Amino acid sequence: MFESATFLIFIAASLALLLVPGPAVLYITARSVDQGRMAGLVSVLGVHLGTVVHVLAAAIGLSALVLASALAFTIIKYAGAAYLIYLGLRRIFGDNGDEPHSLKRESLNRIFWEGVVVNILNPKTALFFLAFLPQFVDPARGMIAGQVLVLGATFIVLGIITDGAYALLAGTAARWIRARPGFLDMQKYLTGGIFIALGLGAALAGSGRKG
What we know:
Layout: H1 4-19, H2 23-35, H3 37-68, H4 70-93, H5 108-120, H6 123-132, H7 144-172, H8 174-179, H9 187-207
């Protein structure tokens, strides 16, 4: 369904986004720090059930868009690339208040469902599926929904691995993290730089394709 080089680029881009702390990672980290590794891992499962919602929405939406207009699909791809660059610049120069925060203790069941909601409402995940994932969907190959589902499932597997690592590390280093509440101060530069690079890469890749 995908060329091996394209699929490897998708995996690399997914890992770049997943490894940068966003709302979901910060939620998972906070749960692990406050309630231990088990709470963190449960939150990971909830977060990625929320990701399934984004995958299904993208599969349905992009399929309908391609059927309606190839030009509209191309416009969406370039608009997504521009939005990535904008978010990167805003992340670097704007005021971002997403430091890890303390959460009150909850049951594992509640932590799971809170994780679902956190990622359904997570702009970073929505951004990935609306702005970046379309760069890897090729209408000429057909089965748009199938392509999105494969890419989405790959993203979820990678997310469970990377977020699970965050949960285990945060739970293990809980005392150290509590003593350094500002340890993610520099993350906005990393996040912004990655968004800008991905946006530029998406725009340049898209310019070499037919809509």
